[in-house]
Protein 1
Amino acid sequence: MYDAIANAAEQLLWKPEIERPADFPKIKNIVVAGMGGSALAAYLIPAIWPEINIIAHRDYGLPFNTQGVFVIASSYSGNTEEVIDAFRTARKEKLPTAAIATGGELARLAEAEEVPLVRLPQTGIQPRAARGYSIQALLTLIGRDAESKELVTFAKKWDPRGTEEVGKRLASRVHGKVPIIYTSERNRAIGYNWKIVFNETAKIPAFANTIPEQNHNEINAFDNVLAGNSFAFVIVRDAEDHPRVARRMEVLEKILLSKGWPVEVVNLEGNSRVAVVQNALTLGDWAGYHTAMLMNHDPDAVPSVESFKKML
């Protein structure tokens, strides 16, 4: 896992190739069927470029009213049953369809159906660690060459190890507690990704919510809970957030501290939106990795997921 995080820039430099490329008409609405780490790109691309309309679908079949959409089935292993079911549903409904996978059943179906496929590199890393590959694959399939080149330009000068110390420090602060991560709505994908990393890499519970939504309901949840060793709140600030969101975060921090809860504030950094998001993602990766190290957990293994699949 350490090498996968440290070498994250190399993934953004990867140039995907489309097997059996097809000329689809201009389609503005994109549905990405994916689970776990294979769905992350569908959240992260709009977080950087909000004008790109992508919906992540994490279930069997497809969402209702899918006419006029481009369906992309994304499964790192190629064997995720929900994604395969979504692919088959898209083909049955005769929707424009493509696939992203390293191989497996999804790649076989794409070939049989003569559907475009981007085959991800088989590096042996976990799907959540293949984030850069998935983003470039998705951008390629939807014809976003300019955005893909923007990532390449950034990656040539980027060292993901630059956020390791901040991530390591965050790990020490949340060690032994359940992280509750708060971001602005525009950074929802970052908070969600941090949650996944704490769950899968560190093997601890973690939760994420957004501001201002938290202020209207979840803030009440801690009124009658004794502050102690149970939770650690992480407030993620972004200089580009709405001024009122920034103010809400300040007030929330004061309230939580007044009740005795530990609060860590993380300020996102970067000279572009691409830099802000990529730095934030690797910071979360490092926090999850070093939390796993503190707890003597294997950061790569996901034994509960594997056991669950066998029981199914």
Protein 2
Amino acid sequence: MTTSALRVSRAIPIVCEKQALDPHVLASLRQNAQLLIHALNLMDTSPLHETEPEQAHLQKLDAKIDLMLHLLAQSLQGNQPLPQAMPVELGPEIVSWQEMGAQPTVGDTVVLGLYLSPGLPLPLKLPAHITASTDGQVTAQLADLGEDLDESWRQWVFRQHRRDIHAQRPTS
């Protein structure tokens, strides 16, 4: 299976903001996104090897502490209600959704805010370029993620895809 065929659909809040990304903004965006997706990936998995449960536990604890510090910083900025959840298709390279507000224009550089976990009131902010925008249906190509963030994002999408496959299997 190619990664372009990998897609998951989720009802999640999403925000799309048109934004020019200079190198400093992009570096900060990547760092914050990497921290959040890394924590989501670690909290979302069980230890892979039974011989290393202590190491896996320490990794999860470390990710939670990092995330709590990040959440504390975010909470100092004030609490805002989450956007309304809507169907979103997520892939390793694309994000597609039905835009309810102002429709972005093809070619726009945007930052997508994806609220991936109901327990975390933080959006995963990813840089993207709008590649299609017709009748409210918008498709964005993820761009400039950097190697680490790209790998972590692909892990998250793959894990969700595997969960969907597992959920569709008949129980015996």
